[in-house]
Amino acid sequence: MNEINVVPYIDVMLVLLVIFMVTAPMIQTGSVDLPSVGKSQQPPAAPLEIMIKADQSLVLRDRAKGAQEVAVTRAELPARLKEAQAKNPQQPVLIAGDKSVKYEAVLSVMDELQRAQVTKIGLLVQPGK
């Protein structure tokens, strides 16, 4: 007789199933008491915006200082951002590229900022319609 008799295995599985069905409702679930947080100590910082225009010129806008726009070159951009972030290191930097600017230009600006160890870099986009 070369066949395996599976009837005893089925019997064992049914007994285990009944045991688990009986004991499952009796198991108490654990609850985690999460800490609550009050209001934030500081409001979120207004971002610094780097705008890459269609002719690949750069404009820096500081929303914390009245959103005035200052034209900058690629060489002086990291120094200006470091100077602005010296007062508030948590201030984010957003890069806004014109629709006609190549993606490569946006990435090169982002790469320069990362090499200059500017933190909290993001991309600014317009929401879809």
Explain how this protein is built.
- The protein has 129 residues and is of the alpha/beta class.
- 32% of the residues lie in helices and 18% in strands.
- The protein contains three helices and five strands.
- A five-stranded mixed beta sheet has the order 3-2-1-4-5, covered by helices on one side.
- The protein is elongated.
- The mean pLDDT is 83.
Write a short abstract of this structure.
It contains three helices and five strands, in the order αβββαβαβ. It has 129 residues and is α/β, with parallel strands linked by helices.
Q: Can you give keywords for this protein?
A:
18% strand, alpha/beta, 129 residues
Bin the helical content. Answer: 25-40%
Strand order of the largest sheet: 3-2-1-4-5
Largest sheet: 5 strands, mixed
Number of extended strands: 5
Mean pLDDT: 83
Structural class, from helix and strand content? alpha/beta
Task: Detail the topology: elements first, then pairings.
Blueprint: H1 7-23, E1 48-52, E2 58-62, E3 68-72, H2 77-87, E4 93-97, H3 103-115, E5 121-123
Parallel strand pairs: 1-4, 4-5
Antiparallel strand pairs: 1-2, 2-3
